[in-house]
Amino acid sequence: MHIKIGTRGSKLALWQAYYVEALLQEGGVETEIVTIETKGDKILDRSLSKIGSKGVFTEELEDQLRDGSIDIAVHSAKDLQSQLDEDFELIAFTEREKANDVLVSHDTSLSLKSGESFTVGTSSTRRIAILKHFYPHIKTVDMRGNLQTRLRKLEEGQCDALLLAYAGVHRMEYDDKIAEHLLLDEFTPAVGQGSVAIECALTLPEDKKETLKSLLNHDHTATCLLAERAFLKRLQGGCSIPVFAMATLHEDTINITGGIVSLDGSELIRRTESGSSAFPEELGTALADELLAAGAERILAEIKQHL
Ligand SMILES: NCc1[nH]cc(CCC(=O)O)c1CC(=O)O
Prior knowledge:
By secondary structure, the protein is α/β, with parallel strands linked by helices. It has helices spanning about 10-25, 40, 50, 60-65, 125-135, 145-155, 165-170, 205-215, 220-235, 280-305, and strands spanning about 1-5, 30-35, 70-75, 90-95, 100-105, 120, 140, 160-165, 180, 195-200, 245-250, 255-260, 270-275.
């Protein structure tokens, strides 16, 4: 069997594609990597929320899935919108890396907890709003671009630190620049953070789908991500909305914590729900409904007016 793997060209995206390639090759599958540039890679002077969150990093990959130029597209699970177009599906989620955020700096003595004021580069509305909520003494500057670009901007002194996903920092081997691991109950990660998602066209032949699933899918991770993604779908949050959720699985029980924070950080709502691993999507949806009733509906409406 031969699988053509489509990926974005950033160093992190390529790492993820090589990771998937290695898993396939171990299973005796021949592979080929096809690098594809997306709108999100090209447009670097506007925030993601202004370009439009839908498909910024996926559209060009999906065009090639549709015409068969590639068999699968490899994405950071957290970059994927909650609702794919109807002719695509996610057939696998790889084993999740530690999902937390980290503070990255040349000065590894920096700490949000210290009370000291410094400037953090990030353009994630989730991270900015959570910083405003818990650490109002921290200044933020907008910092888009792929990991390499952001690290260069840090180097140039455009900020004192970056706020990033541990998964990406670790994959790029910048662990020695981690100043602080942030708490999951303050910086609850974005939905899907730390896992790699495999997308294909519905029309991909069944034998390929079976092989891909058996070699790439991590059942435990997939159960958690199904709950998180159902949560995101109900809240209709793209990656530009400060919504967060993380599920964990212990035996047959999923625990999921999720919430939303207003853009100025003044209001943060967070809830936890538990339920059977047999019904991950129902659990994610129920958590979202609970939040909507508890004020998330109003916060979401306010956010959508601003973006
Ligand atoms: N939005 C960009 C993005 N997409 C995935 C990761 C990191 C890897 C991951 O979470 O899987 C990052 C960088 C970051 O947020 O620090």
